C-alpha cells in the first residue's frame, strides 16, 4: 500500500487511514493511496465494511493547493471519489478535527459520515477565490438541503458536529477513533442500504418545485459580495444541483472551478493566503517556540495605522500607551478610535458599554519621556 495511506483489516472491517502530516492534505500521493486502499478493501472478500479515517490531529483539511496552477497529477480527486461512491460495501468517513474543502468532498462521497463532537465541517474554497471542484456543490445540497449548502459554500464558514447532525450531514456523533469502526459494524449487522448522495434528490425536491427557496438563500449570502467573482460562481454551481442531473452538474461545477483557478482575483487571494502563512514564520526561530505573553504595549503615532493597531490590542484586552508628538494629533487620533467603536456598537457589533471600556485601556501621551 501507499506510504501515506494504509489499509488494515479488523475482522470484517477494513480501516483505511491517511497519515500525511500536518493536515492530511489531498496531495497526489494521498489521492493515489486512498484509491489503492479502497480498491483493495473492496476486493478482499473478508471485508464487509470500510472506515476512512485519518491519523494525527485532523481529518483531511483540504486540497494540496501547492498543486494549483501546475500540470495535474493523477489520480484526479473525482476519480477517487467515484471509486468510494461506487463501492458495493459501505464506506464510512470517521471525522475528527476538520473536514474542509476537498476533505469534506471525500466525506460526502462516502455512504455515511460520523464525527467527534469537536469536529468542524466546511467548504471554504470561496475564501481563496474558488468554488469546490470535486462535487461539493452537487453533493452537499443533497446532504443538507440547498439553503444550508448555499450558506456553507457561498459564505465559506464551517459548521460544528451538532449542526451537521441536525441537518443530516453526519449520521452520528462518536466518542473517538473507535466510533467509526463501531458504526460500520452496526451497518453490517443491520444490512442498511447504502446512501449515495448523487442518487438522492429528496432534500432538493422542494427547491426544484419552488426556486425561491434557493434564490432567497443566494440573495442573503451574496448581498455583501459585490465585486467578488467566487461567491456568485459558487451560487451558480449550487443551482446546477437543483436544475441538472448529477453528472451534468458535476461537469458544470468543474468548468466553473477551472475558470476561477485561472482568474487574477483567485490568484491574488491565494497569494495573500500563502503570504499570511509565511509571515508567521520567523527565520532562526525553532519550531515549537512559544510566544511570550503580551501584557502591555506602547505605540508611536496615533494616525490611521497607529490608531488601528491600538484598537486591535484594546479589542484583545491589552492596555496600550499611545504616544504622539503633539496634543492636537493625539486628541484627533483618540477621537477617531472613539467614533469607530461607537459606530460599531450602534450597529450591534459590540456591546453598548464596549467603547468606554476599550477607550479606558488606551493611555495617550505627548512626547517620549
Give descriptors for this structure.
alpha/beta, three-stranded mixed sheet, six-stranded mixed sheet, 2 domains, 12 strands, 15 helices, Rossmann fold, 2-enoyl-CoA Hydratase, Chain A, domain 1, 369 residues
Task: Tell me what you see in this structure.
- With 369 residues, the protein is an alpha/beta fold.
- Helix content is 46%, strand content 14%.
- The chain has a six-stranded mixed β-sheet, sandwiched between helices. A three-stranded mixed β-sheet has the order 5-7-8. A three-stranded parallel β-sheet has the order 10-11-12.
- The model has no long low-confidence stretch (mean pLDDT 93).
- CATH homologous superfamily grouping of the largest domain: 2-enoyl-CoA Hydratase, Chain A, domain 1
Distance between the termini: 68 Å
Helix content: 40-55%
Q: In the CATH hierarchy, what is the architecture of the largest domain at level 2?
A: Alpha-Beta Complex
> What Rg is obtained from the alpha carbons, in whole angstroms?
25 Å
Number of H- or I-type helical stretches? 15
Total DSSP E strands: 12
Low-confidence stretches: none
Largest sheet, described in full?
Answer: 6 strands, mixed
Return the structural class: alpha/beta
Any idea of the CATH class of the largest domain? Alpha Beta
Number of domains: 2
Shape: elongated
Stated plainly, the CATH topology of the largest domain is called 2-enoyl-CoA Hydratase, Chain A, domain 1
- The SSE string, one letter per element, is EEHEHEEHEEHHEHEHHHHHHEHEHHE
Amino acid at each position: 500500500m501507499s506510504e501515506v495511506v494504509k489499509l488494515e483489516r479488523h475482522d470484517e472491517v477494513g480501516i483505511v487511514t491517511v497519515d500525511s502530516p500536518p493536515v492530511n492534505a489531498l496531495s497526489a500521493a494521498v489521492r493515489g493511496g486512498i484509491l489503492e486502499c479502497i480498491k483493495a478493501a473492496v476486493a478482499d472478500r473478508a471485508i464487509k465494511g470500510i472506515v476512512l479515517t485519518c491519523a494525527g490531529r485532523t481529518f483531511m483539511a483540504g486540497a494540496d493547493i501547492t498543486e494549483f496552477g501546475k500540470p495535474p497529477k493523477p489520480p484526479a480527486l473525482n476519480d477517487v471519489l467515484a471509486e468510494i461512491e461506487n463501492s458495493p460495501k459501505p464506506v464510512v468517513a470517521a471525522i475528527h478535527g476538520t473536514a474542509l474543502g476537498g476533505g469534506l468532498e471525500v466525506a460526502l462521497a462516502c455512504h455515511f459520515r460520523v464525527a467527534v463532537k469537536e469536529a468542524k465541517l466546511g467548504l471554504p474554497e470561496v475564501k481563496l477565490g474558488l468554488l469546490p471542484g470535486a462535487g461539493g456543490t452537487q453533493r452537499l445540497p443533497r446532504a443538507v438541503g440547498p439553503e444550508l449548502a448555499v450558506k456553507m459554500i457561498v459564505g465559506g464558514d464551517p459548521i460544528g458536529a451538532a449542526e451537521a447532525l441536525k441537518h443530516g450531514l453526519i449520521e452520528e456523533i462518536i466518542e473517538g477513533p473507535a466510533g467509526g469502526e463501531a458504526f460500520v459494524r452496526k451497518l453490517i449487522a443491520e444490512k442498511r442500504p447504502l446512501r449515495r448522495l448523487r442518487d438522492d434528490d429528496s432534500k432538493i425536491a422542494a427547491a426544484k418545485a419552488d426556486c425561491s427557496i434557493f434564490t432567497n438563500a443566494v440573495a442573503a449570502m451574496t448581498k455583501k459580495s459585490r465585486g467578488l467573482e467566487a461567491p456568485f460562481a459558487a451560487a451558480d454551481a449550487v443551482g446546477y444541483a437543483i436544475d441538472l442531473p448529477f453528472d451534468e452538474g458535476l461537469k458544470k461545477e468543474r468548468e466553473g472551478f477551472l475558470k476561477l483557478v485561472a482568474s487574477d482575483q483567485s490568484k491574488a487571494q491565494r497569494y495573500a493566503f500563502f503570504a499570511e502563512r509565511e509571515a508567521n514564520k520567523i527565520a532562526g526561530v525553532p519550531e515549537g517556540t512559544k510566544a511570550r505573553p503580551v501584557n502591555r504595549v506602547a505605540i508611536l503615532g496615533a494616525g490611521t495605522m497607529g490608531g488601528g493597531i491600538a484598537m486591535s490590542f484594546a479589542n484583545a484586552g491589552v492596555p496600550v500607551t499611545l504616544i504622539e508628538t503633539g496634543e492636537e494629533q493625539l486628541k484627533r487620533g483618540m477621537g477617531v478610535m472613539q467614533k469607530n467603536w461607537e459606530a460599531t456598537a450602534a450597529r450591534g457589533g459590540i456591546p453598548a458599554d464596549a467603547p468606554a471600556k476599550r477607550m479606558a485601556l488606551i493611555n495617550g501621551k505627548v512626547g517620549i519621556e
